[in-house]
Design a protein that fits this description.
Helices cover about 20% and strands about 35% of the residues. It is of the alpha+beta class and about 300 residues long.
């Protein structure tokens, strides 16, 4: 004989909920007691990494909107997006043409391998076809805060094809006028231009690229970042570019350039970081151009 027993649905639901709650509480208490020390260790490691990342970020000389807002000087900054907007074959002159108040004039070649004259508020730097221009060599050009101007140059203290690979540039700071005495140089009459390269990072990364176009334009670039290891972080980047011009015949003015740079940063707790930068560039341009110095010495930065 089969017998059926009726179960109260409300009582069944209450018992089921109680068992589930008891199981969840038991699992939570067990997890807390087993991993309390590990969570503390993870938090301590994360805090140390956060402090290192903050110290490393302070070595980046690129201007931000907040810095410009608080500054007493007239300044502007070109970010990575603006720099990429001028194209893969562009150089320093093409990027600077996007900044307000800057005029660019070139002769001879095209793209990043050619030499251009840069003018800020009428004061100039770079190659010019007019000798004896009293307004020339009145701008300071920096690479990561290090002066690039040639003090004994006859026809311009700095050439735009000294920055031929824009993929290595993280940002461009422009200060109009002489600026603050703490950051200006002897020839910052019209202003100061600071090319900020790619910076060391907390996480490792690698990137390679190539480009090609009309008039025999060809370019390669790469950058490698080690990430943060025991307070050390470094970046190495380089590239090569070449092109002809729209001219034909014997004066087609072919040009080529290659450049590479490296930067290493050591961060310390409670004290400023120490970094070292090296930059090398070689450019051979059309027959009327002269060769650039073959190297830039390793320079420390505090």
């Amino acid at each position: 004989m089969n017998k059926r027993y009726r179960i109260n649905p409300l009582l069944f639901a209450m018992c089921t909920a109680g068992l589930c709650t008891f199981s969840a509480l038991t699992a939570a208490l067990g997890a807390d007691s087993a991993s309390a020390t590990n969570v503390g260790e993870v938090n301590a490691s994360a805090k140390a990494l956060s402090e290192s990342a903050k110290t490393l970020a302070n070595t980046d000389g690129k201007l931000t909107k907040k810095k410009i807002f608080k500054s007493t000087q007239s300044q502007a900054v070109l970010g990575k997006r603006e720099i990429q907007g001028v194209g893969p074959a562009a150089g320093a002159a093409q990027a600077l043409s996007l900044a307000p108040g800057i005029a660019v004039r070139g002769y001879g070649g095209i793209a990043s391998t050619a030499r251009y004259e840069i003018a800020v508020r009428g004061v100039k730097v770079g190659w010019s076809s007019v000798n004896g221009d009293v307004e020339r060599n009145g701008l300071t050009v920096l690479f990561d805060g290090i002066p690039m101007n040639n003090l004994i140059a006859h026809n311009g203290g700095w050439d735009s094809n000294e920055i031929p690979i824009l993929q290595m540039i993280h940002g461009i700071n422009v200060t109009y006028g002489p600026g603050n005495p703490a950051g200006r140089w002897f020839d910052s009459i019209g202003g100061t231009i600071n090319f900020v390269p790619l910076q060391p990072s907390v996480k490792p990364s690698a990137e390679m690229g190539t480009s090609f176009g009309s008039n025999g334009t060809l370019g390669y670039n790469f950058d490698l970042k080690t990430g943060m290891y025991d307070g050390w972080s470094a970046v190495l980047a380089g590239g090569y570019t070449k092109n002809n011009t729209f001219r034909t015949g014997s004066f087609n003015a072919p040009a080529q350039s290659f450049a590479y740079f490296g930067k290493a940063v050591k961060t310390f707790r409670g004290v400023p970081s120490v970094s070292a930068v090296t930059w090398t560039v070689r450019a051979s341009s059309d027959p009327i151009s002269s060769r650039l110095p073959p190297y830039r010495a390793l320079l420390p930065k505090a």
